[in-house]
């Protein structure tokens, strides 16, 4: 069993559901049905000559689990084939994936343009971390294509966005932003966590790099952290290979195994969670205690046409604003009996988040207001419970708001 064995198991001709179950499997001499978990740091060699050849890259095979590992290779291969990418690398967390994809290709003097509306830690990387190393960044209103165009400079190397955005579920025009980036000689990196690989394929829309927090829907059962970067072979060879080997943001083989098994049920879970989210959105849309509801699958979403064009379905998330601000939102959250209060998403358990005091607490009130994250805003992540139990629970809790 070797790295080259993983790449031979191409299932590209099959539909995503089939790829999620079979892609990348490396079967050992024992013929196990379920993929094996290789909990090993390192590898032994038949001879000193073989060891030398392995280090020279002349003998295919594993060297050290910071570089690669059979269980990690199976997870990576399954993600690569699901996404339809040329290549990919896994990481210990979603933030390790974002930080590596954004930082590794850059040097002092480069410039990055990113959408303002994004996961709090991603915004920290772009807004606070990069400038400390001499990499300038400009944040734009991601919905405004003119702002992207005007922000481009001769030294702009990367553009970065997430869509739908966290937590306000705006949908950004990936094809048009990719075109603007490419015209300026820059690459587009897309954080596809909220859309999931089931509903959106940024590479097919023109993006160059896709990143995931596998912690979310890919695990989907709240067990472990992980991340993934998908791109061309050239991007990885040129920018990631050495950076990742030497700096070590590696995924653990145990977590890779959990995530690999999570992928087998990803399509089934995401479809069920999306159906539930759509039902919750429809049930709450005109609720008297809610001033605004946003769901990418509804006809009243501000970018409904774009959703149809670039996504295969809405989302597993719903955003809504409880009338009466923070106090009312807290009363509603505290009254829930089925959905649980958490900052996570994509889980089998439905989770509710108050972004202003958690994921986006670090931002100034002005920055939050600019993003539409009001004190009453709540993010709902649909789980796998019966939709009617969730709707009844939310309606009862809103009565307490
Ligand atoms: C959670 C999340 C991340 C970070 O992932 P971790 O696995 O928690 O490090 C990045 N981007 C988005 C959109 C996320 O939701």
UniProtKB/TrEMBL annotation:
<dbReference type="GO" id="GO:0005737">
    <property type="term" value="C:cytoplasm"/>
</dbReference>
<dbReference type="Pfam" id="PF01053">
    <property type="entry name" value="Cys_Met_Meta_PP"/>
</dbReference>
<dbReference type="GO" id="GO:0016846">
    <property type="term" value="F:carbon-sulfur lyase activity"/>
</dbReference>
<keyword id="KW-0663">Pyridoxal phosphate</keyword>
<comment type="subunit">
    <text>Homotetramer.</text>
</comment>
<dbReference type="GO" id="GO:0019346">
    <property type="term" value="P:transsulfuration"/>
</dbReference>
<dbReference type="InterPro" id="IPR015424">
    <property type="entry name" value="PyrdxlP-dep_Trfase"/>
</dbReference>
<dbReference type="GO" id="GO:0071268">
    <property type="term" value="P:homocysteine biosynthetic process"/>
</dbReference>
<protein>
    <recommendedName>
        <fullName>O-succinylhomoserine sulfhydrylase</fullName>
        <ecNumber>2.5.1.-</ecNumber>
    </recommendedName>
</protein>
<comment type="function">
    <text>Catalyzes the formation of L-homocysteine from O-succinyl-L-homoserine (OSHS) and hydrogen sulfide.</text>
</comment>
<dbReference type="GO" id="GO:0071266">
    <property type="term" value="P:'de novo' L-methionine biosynthetic process"/>
</dbReference>
<comment type="similarity">
    <text>Belongs to the trans-sulfuration enzymes family. MetZ subfamily.</text>
</comment>
<dbReference type="GO" id="GO:0030170">
    <property type="term" value="F:pyridoxal phosphate binding"/>
</dbReference>
<feature type="modified residue" description="N6-(pyridoxal phosphate)lysine">
    <location>
        <position position="216"/>
    </location>
</feature>
<dbReference type="InterPro" id="IPR000277">
    <property type="entry name" value="Cys/Met-Metab_PyrdxlP-dep_enz"/>
</dbReference>
<dbReference type="InterPro" id="IPR015421">
    <property type="entry name" value="PyrdxlP-dep_Trfase_major"/>
</dbReference>
<dbReference type="InterPro" id="IPR006234">
    <property type="entry name" value="O-succ-hSer_sulfhydrylase"/>
</dbReference>
<keyword id="KW-0486">Methionine biosynthesis</keyword>
<dbReference type="InterPro" id="IPR015422">
    <property type="entry name" value="PyrdxlP-dep_Trfase_small"/>
</dbReference>
<dbReference type="GO" id="GO:0016765">
    <property type="term" value="F:transferase activity, transferring alkyl or aryl (other than methyl) groups"/>
</dbReference>
<keyword id="KW-0028">Amino-acid biosynthesis</keyword>
<comment type="pathway">
    <text>Amino-acid biosynthesis; L-methionine biosynthesis via de novo pathway; L-homocysteine from O-succinyl-L-homoserine: step 1/1.</text>
</comment>
<keyword id="KW-0808">Transferase</keyword>
